[in-house]
Design goal:
The structure holds two protein chains of two kinds.
Chain A lengths: L1 H21 L19 E3 L7 E3 L8 E6 L4 H16 L4 E6 L3 H11 L5 E5 L3 H5 L7 E5 L5 E6 L4 H17 L1
Chain B lengths: L1 H23 L7 H11 L18 H15 L4 H12 L14 H28 L7 H16 L1
Helix pairs in contact in B: 2-3
Classes of the chains: A alpha/beta, B mainly alpha.
């Protein structure tokens, strides 16, 4: 009886590891930018490309930077959530329209609603590279001093909003 | 009339195709030294979109952008290390196919050796235990005599 125990234990440990692995998201790569100052940017605004918006304009506020694109399917998933979040006025959302065309982006905001206080356009994805963007949508929580407190790759869900983002923003706003 | 629209759509489709092709052409591929460096670096770097491909293998949009970024940096005469550091600062160690040895990657580097070591110890323990389980079962004088007799009979017949 005893000699079967060890293989059984090894098997169960392996099953445990594999089970945990099943629930991990391979897109969740830890970002080296968390805890570092958000990269500077000055980009033209989507609504008026002659005006430039810079991340520095948000100093003193806790804000969310949401990288999106009209060609991005997963962005559609999170968009209604962003719209309802914006309606509460809880935290300002800045959109970064990543490698997109202006017409399509504007059309998307008309159709799905516009949750952003401002949207900037990163046509060639250069600023995206500075932010380490690799899978749109991505969302950054940036604190009053302009430091990235959290990064979410992939669409925001009700769960991530409730369990991570909202408590974090509240904490940062109280600081 | 319908025919006209159909033709219009066809022409439009063709225009679409040529415009997307036009996008594919990437500038600045003329400096051979730079290209060698770009090639060398993009073989060591991971495309984060399709995580099991290098930048060199990948045709993802981001991989093309990153290659272009590397190309521009290489053209400015930046060394491999500087370029890798630049990308690691943005995307983390995960962009590197060869992870560096540091506290967070210690398990990755030493894990296989630890497993090998544990296996070796297990094997040693098992062998020792088996050795012990072999009972010394040598024959006494009477039995030796008996065996000799039997063997003798065998030889005679």
């Amino acid at each position: 009886m005893k000699r079967f125990l060890l293989p059984l234990v090894i098997f169960l440990v392996m099953v445990g590891f594999l089970f945990v692995g099943l629930n991990l998201d391979p897109r969740e790569v830890p970002s080296p930018l968390v805890g570092k100052p958000a990269p500077q940017f000055s980009l033209p605004r989507l609504d008026n490309p002659e005006q430039v918006f810079s991340g520095n304009d948000m100093l003193g506020k806790v804000w969310l930077l949401n990288v999106w694109a009209s060609w991005c399917g997963a962005c559609k998933e999170e968009h209604p959530l962003l719209v309802s979040l914006a309606k509460t006025g809880f935290v300002p959302l800045v959109g970064m329209d990543y490698k997109d065309t202006r017409d399509e982006a504007q059309q998307w905001l008309v159709q799905g609603g516009n949750p952003y206080m401002t949207t900037v356009i990163d046509v060639d994805g250069r600023v995206g590279i500075n932010y380490g963007v690799y899978g749109v949508p991505e969302t950054y929580v940036i604190d009053k001093k302009g430091i990235i407190a959290y990064k979410k790759t992939g669409p925001i869900t009700m769960q991530s909003l409730r369990e991570v983002i909202v408590p974090l923003v509240k904490k940062l706003q109280a600081e | 009339m319908q025919n006209f629209y159909l033709r219009l759509i066809l022409v439009f489709c063709m225009l679409q195709i040529s415009s997307t092709w036009a996008k594919e052409a990437r500038p600045m591929q003329n400096d051979a030294v730079v290209e060698v460096q770009v090639q060398r670096l993009s073989e060591q770097l991971r495309c984060l979109v399709c995580q099991n491909q290098t930048l060199a293998d990948s045709h993802a949009d981001l991989a093309q952008d990153l290659k272009q970024e590397i190309r521009e940096m290489a053209a400015k005469g930046m060394s491999d290390q500087v370029i890798i550091d630049y990308l690691v600062a943005r995307y983390g160690d995960f962009v590197r196919y060869r992870p560096p040895l540091k506290s967070t990657t210690l398990l990755l580097w030493l894990g296989p050796f630890a497993l090998l070591f544990a296996g070796g110890i297990g094997l040693l323990v098992t062998l020792r235990r088996r050795e012990k389980s072999i009972v010394d079962d040598s024959l006494n004088a009477d039995e030796v005599q008996k065996v000799r007799e039997l063997l003798a009979i065998n030889k005679e017949s």
